[in-house]
């Protein structure tokens, strides 16, 4: 018998800065349930007058991390929920959440690969859960992550991605920096386009399983570019992030 | 409807963002459910619908022709689910939906 999706009160265990505008919030859940990498939680805030604001935030942690979920949240300056998380919440506080949610934008080792993950900014979060689960499972699924950022300082999970990419288990991590590049940068320095997609996916073969997450323009460009390049549309799954924070 | 402006300021989300509300209403995850657009006939997963969540209700539009497929409106006393833009929904619950 399925358990209904219900709201529960989580406790903030830990808050960890990732970049200037991004933090990871570890939430301890009284009714934790194993999630699938790529799923999200809904968060809602209720004001004293009853006004409610609700947002969805992707889970960054793999399901092997039990009892808690890590939500990595970007601060949107004029948002209703993310500034509260960034500026008000401290460890020990409570927050209302429900989840895990979603069965479409998910990956688990049994789905296989080769795996092509494409991220725009904080769209990397659900893809990170997939990479963490892949590593935790000891899977050697051929995988490439192509992530687009404005500058090197905006890269979320930079050190961990570097370590995962150096593990020698078939993961290639590629960043493109669209606005500014550090001196000596030899990587991509433009928005994701057809030739870039072709270069990154070539080592994966003709039929990769694709997950794209980011702002809608990036999602459209990447999905269209891949399908035009011959990837079957049925192999491409997308999730659009919006600056509604 | 011309959604170009919406797309360029990136305010559009997708069916994934409405998954919690639909699951609360229907009791199972809908993101993988397939729909057929009444307007253009496109066959796709609910997750791929374009979601407009900023208004008093939620509007889900076809990702191909941009016509309205689903509307979800909550009042203080009731919830309205308008599915007139979907010729059908194909529900195929999987083991993973059982919590």
Poorly predicted ranges of chain B: 95-99
Q: What is the total number of structural domains of chain A?
A: 2
Greatest interface by residues involved? A-B, 30 and 32 residues
Distance between the termini of chain A: 34 Å
Count of DSSP-assigned helices of chain A:
5
N-to-C order of helices and strands of chain B: HEHEEEEEEE
CATH homolog superfamily of the largest domain in chain A: Nucleotide-binding domain of ferredoxin-NADP reductase (FNR) module
Given helix and strand content, the structural type of chain B is: alpha+beta
Q: What fold name goes in the CATH topology slot of the largest domain in chain A?
A: Rossmann fold
Strand fraction band of chain A?
Answer: 25-35%
CATH classification, class level of the largest domain in chain A: Alpha Beta
Tally the beta strands of chain A.
11
Name the shape of chain A in a single word. Answer: globular
Q: Report how far apart the termini of chain B are.
A: 39 Å
Strand order of the largest sheet of chain B: 1-4-5-6-7
C-alpha geometry of chain B: globular
User: Main beta sheet of chain A: strand number and arrangement?
Assistant: 6 strands, antiparallel
Oligomerization state of this entry? heterodimer
